[in-house]
Design the sequence.
């Protein structure tokens, strides 16, 4: 990871490494990665020793994005597990940072989005997953986020119909 690299944070989406520097924090000298998230107007400072454990990674390759978009074409998985447990599982998948796993959430929850039969919490999880996937697709394919959302929803709708 170097200055200027685009990175994916599992909770904040796509950002850019502004700088990597040694700083004094509470009397300790730490090597920190400064990540700027323009959309959220957020700057995050992450110790280099924690980068991997929090799931911060370089932006996905086009191949990985293609695999994630292919997941949208699959059949939605229906589960008989209680909603609270499924919601927890979906949130874990969204926070995983893996675009293929996030695409599974978009696929599974997107079927009800088209029909308009989602609960409030289901809609929130769907939108979070869609936003996370769209941010990365937009960054990898150098398009705006709105175009990425349109591509994802069109692909999911084509599979559903």
Sequence:
């Amino acid at each position: 990871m170097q200055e200027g690299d685009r990175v994916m944070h599992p909770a904040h989406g796509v950002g850019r490494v502004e700088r990597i520097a040694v700083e004094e924090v509470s009397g300790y000298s730490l090597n920190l990665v400064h990540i700027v998230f323009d959309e959220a107007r957020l700057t995050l400072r992450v110790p280099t020793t924690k980068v991997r454990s929090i799931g911060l990674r370089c932006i996905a390759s086009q191949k990985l994005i293609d695999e994630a978009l292919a997941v949208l074409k699959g059949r939605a998985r229906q589960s008989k597990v209680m909603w609270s447990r499924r919601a927890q599982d979906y949130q874990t998948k969204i926070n995983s940072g893996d675009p293929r796993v996030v695409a599974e959430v978009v696929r599974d929850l997107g079927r009800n989005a088209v029909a308009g039969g989602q609960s409030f919490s289901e809609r929130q999880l769907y939108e979070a997953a869609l936003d996370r996937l769209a941010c990365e697709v937009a960054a990898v394919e150098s398009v705006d986020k709105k175009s990425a959302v349109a591509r994802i929803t069109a692909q999911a709708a084509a599979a559903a119909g």
